[in-house]
């Protein structure tokens, strides 16, 4: 190799990684290359130092700005080192490649951001995604976003926990005699996340943003219990004892207890909502208040609302469970209620004048749309204006 191809080096990601010392394999690769071509060691060393210096100016996205700054950097380095170390020809080639260097500095800037930005940080206004934290029986916590689909998450107490090819969390008993029914797991979603899980009995649960579900590794032979916060949609598996009797399933929130015999229903128990609501899609459930000695039996198409008292009303199911299908559906919904949903899904804080909270809106939009789409939809009504200041959504007249 008689002559260095500086442009090829500057555009070679592995060479940039070697210069920055960020990749062990790339470092070993280029050290072996230098052993093979020792005549270029001085040139490579100087170019390495120059690229590292470029990283200091990588925050500017303007190539022209980079050109001017890097030209100054080259001159500075030229004054610090004798040209005999690298040769005038190499410095001239570097100068001729300054525009390319500007582009490389942009690459370095993006690479630096990727290195510095914490995992799972959600950009402002971006719709939520499938992610959750799983707390195992020993208290250890697993980020499910870090587990590949089709992989085993953990093996505990005779139960294999998998993340299937659809990204759902699945429990599979591999040593039934070892499973302790007192061992508990907990799955939790943050704002801006949702997750689906298949429980040890085969029942399905779909957690909305900012929700939790606590459940045993093994359900009792006589009854099944889970505890939840936030919002969860359930599809309960029908299981019978050897005597042909159905094993009941109980869902508990802070204020109520739901008895299920096999059905589909949705529970909304967010702390910031005025009611705990249970909406029945099919089957039957009995909802009981923990504070008062009262209960109601729901029919499909009904929901129970609980605050101080417990009452039942007919409801538009499509609106209640639209989130399961990936939509927002608003039918005469008050702005304050709508904003709570936006806050949880887009992970933003909201501020709204009290006098505007009761404004009502109709509409439908996919939850996969960015927050800007929701803002535009609300503003086209002419009722309100909104502004996004950082992670704070502000409603103005």
TrEMBL record:
Q: Which residues cross the membrane?
A: 86-109
Would you say which domain of life the source belongs to? Bacteria
Keyword list, A-Z:
Membrane, Transmembrane, Transmembrane helix
Provide the FecR protein domain boundaries.
186-286
Where do the Protein FecR C-terminal domain residues begin and end?
Answer: 327-395
Transmembrane as a keyword? yes
A Gene Ontology molecular function term of the record: sigma factor antagonist activity
InterPro entries in the record: FecR, FecR_C, Ferrdict_sens_TM
Q: Name one Pfam family in it.
A: FecR
Coiled-coil positions are none
Under PANTHER family, the record lists: PERIPLASMIC SIGNAL SENSOR AND SIGMA FACTOR ACTIVATOR FECR-RELATED, PROTEIN FECR
- Recorded protein name is FecR family protein
Q: Which organism is it from?
A: Sphingobacterium siyangense
């Amino acid at each position: 190799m008689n002559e260095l191809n500086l442009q090829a080096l500057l555009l070679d990601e592995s060479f940039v990684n070697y210069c920055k010392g960020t990749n062990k394999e790339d470092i070993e690769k280029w050290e072996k290359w230098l052993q093979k071509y020792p005549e270029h060691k001085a040139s490579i060393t100087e170019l390495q130092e120059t690229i590292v210096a470029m990283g200091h100016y990588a925050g500017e996205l303007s190539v022209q700005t980079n050109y001017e700054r890097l030209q100054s950097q080259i001159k500075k380095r030229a004054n610090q080192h004798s040209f005999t170390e690298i040769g005038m020809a190499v410095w001239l080639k570097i100068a001729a490649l300054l525009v390319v260097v500007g582009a490389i500095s942009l690459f370095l800037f993006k690479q630096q951001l990727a290195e510095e930005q914490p995992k799972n940080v959600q950009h402002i206004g971006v719709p939520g995604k499938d992610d959750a934290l799983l707390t195992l029986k020993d208290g250890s916590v697993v980020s499910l976003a870090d587990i590949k689909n089709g992989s085993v998450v953990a093996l505990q107490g005779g139960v294999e926990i998998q993340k299937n090819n659809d990204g759902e969390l699945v429990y599979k008993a591999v040593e039934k005699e070892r499973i302790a029914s007192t061992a508990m797991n907990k799955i939790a979603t943050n704002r801006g996340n949702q997750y689906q899980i298949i429980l040890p009995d085969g029942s399905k649960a779909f957690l909305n943003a900012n929700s939790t579900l606590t459940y045993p590794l093994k359900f009792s032979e006589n009854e099944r219990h889970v505890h939840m916060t936030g919002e969860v949609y359930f599809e309960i598996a029908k299981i019978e004892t050897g005597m042909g009797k159905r094993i009941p399933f109980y869902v508990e929130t802070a204020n109520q207890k739901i008895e299920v015999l096999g059905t589909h229903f949705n529970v909304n128990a967010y702390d910031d909502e005025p009611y705990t609501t249970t909406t029945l899609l099919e089957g039957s459930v009995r909802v009981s208040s923990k504070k008062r000695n009262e209960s109601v039996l729901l029919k499909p198409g009904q929901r129970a609302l609980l605050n101080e008292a417990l009452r039942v009303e007919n409801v538009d199911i499509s609106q209640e469970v639209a989130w399961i299908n990936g939509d927002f559906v608003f039918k005469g919904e008050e702005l304050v209620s709508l904003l709570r949903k936006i806050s949880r899904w887009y992970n933003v804080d909201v501020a709204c004048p009290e006098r505007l909270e009761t404004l009502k809106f109709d509409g439908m939009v996919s939850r996969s749309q960015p927050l800007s789409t929701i803002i535009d939809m609300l503003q086209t009504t002419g009722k309100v204006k909104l502004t996004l200041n950082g992670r704070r959504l502000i409603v103005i007249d």
